Amino acid sequence: MTIFVTGGAGYIGSHTVIKLVENGYDVVVADNFSNSKKEAVKRTRELAGKDFPLYEIDICNERMLSKIFTIHDIDCVIHFAGLKAVGESVEKPLEYYKNNLNSTIALLSAMKSHNINNIIFSSSATVYRPDNKMPLTEDSLTGGCTNPYGWTKFMCEQIITDTVNATGRLTAVVLRYFNPIGAHESGRIGEDPQDTPNNIMPYIAQTAVGRREFLSVFGDDWDTVDGTGVRDYLHVVDLAEGHVAAIKYATENPNGTSIFNLGTGKGVSVLELVTAFEEATGVSVPRKITQRRPGDIATCYTATGKAKELLGWETKKTLKEACADTWNWQKNNPNGYV
Ligand code: NAD
Ligand code: UD1
Known about the structure:
Layout: E1 2-6, H1 11-22, E2 26-31, H2 38-48, E3 54-56, H3 62-71, E4 76-79, H4 86-91, H5 93-113, E5 118-124, H6 148-167, E6 171-177, E7 179-181, H7 200-208, E8 215-218, E9 230-231, E10 233-235, H8 236-252, E11 256-262, E12 268-269, H9 270-281, E13 287-290, H10 305-311, H11 319-332
Parallel strand pairs: 1-2, 1-4, 2-3, 4-5, 5-6, 6-11, 7-10, 8-13
Antiparallel strand pairs: 9-12
Helix pairs in contact: 1-2, 1-8, 3-5, 5-6, 7-11, 9-11
């Protein structure tokens, strides 16, 4: 079975490609390197032990997609490609809507022309309304997004669902990720933000390695265990395995759209995360309590029942392992792939 992986040079895509090859799938990767480096693909090939095809294209280009689908007999698409920085999406909404919506539309359209009937889509916990009760289930309310990035994920889910309903032969699995952290155990690939990290784990790692002076803890007056924000941090390698489970599910349950939350089911506060990192690595992380970040919520974690029952998937790696693997990547690559 051949899987077409858009955004396969990125953080989650590269880890997933390795898992796909390990599980016997053939892989074709496409990326425009707008937020990644070719070195990531080189290392992914080394770790996978396989020289899979790579196309440097913009996924919004349906003509190029069509060419690739003529060359390769694709059974399933995993659509990771997208812009993902929340703050940037507020400043440049049109770039976000253009890239994330057009890529999804071009992909679905090319898939239709070439009779490719399975798609796994990278969505996010950000599609849930901020006022839901925790833990979030797949039936929790969506919408009310606080930024354009979130809306692009919400809209892409709708575009995919409408297309599935219209064609009657498409199978879509929408995966709503919680907070992926960690890196491949080799320390060869990992998360490599191009600018100042928005997400907490790369910020912690870059502070530990001396690239940042201190971590700003965004508020200690939230209604949580220690006043700092609580999130559901899952190891990226577990998340990668979630995609393998999703492909299996799609092939065994054809036609229709299925939605799954992928997370650990456990909430961890910012201070708990910093402590776990320090304990796992022996490296201290200087920190200062600062103002709350606009748009943040106190707590966000998932219920895990649906993914366990239907995908047969749950996280296996611990928070400590995720911290140790993040550090292994960061200390061996203090400046990322550069
Ligand atoms: P990433 O930026 O590391 O990877 C995305 C990849 O897509 C990059 O390599 C980028 O160059 C590529 N890309 C972007 N637009 C493209 C286009 N038009 N054509 C071709 N390639 C393009 O991000 P990631 O963390 O690996 O995230 C993967 C997906 O998962 C994204 O859709 C993201 O929104 C979603 N997601 C990520 C998180 C997270 O915390 N990392 C959480 C929830 C959802
Ligand atoms: C972010 C995105 C969300 C996306 C999710 C997973 C924002 C506003 N939201 O959410 O759309 O789905 O990642 O990729 O960016 N924190 C600090 N200091 C920092 C950075 C973060 O204290 O320097 C805190 C935050 O306040 C939060 C926690 O750490 O409590 C996690 O933050 P982050 O990694 O940005 O993830 P999310 O807020 O869950």
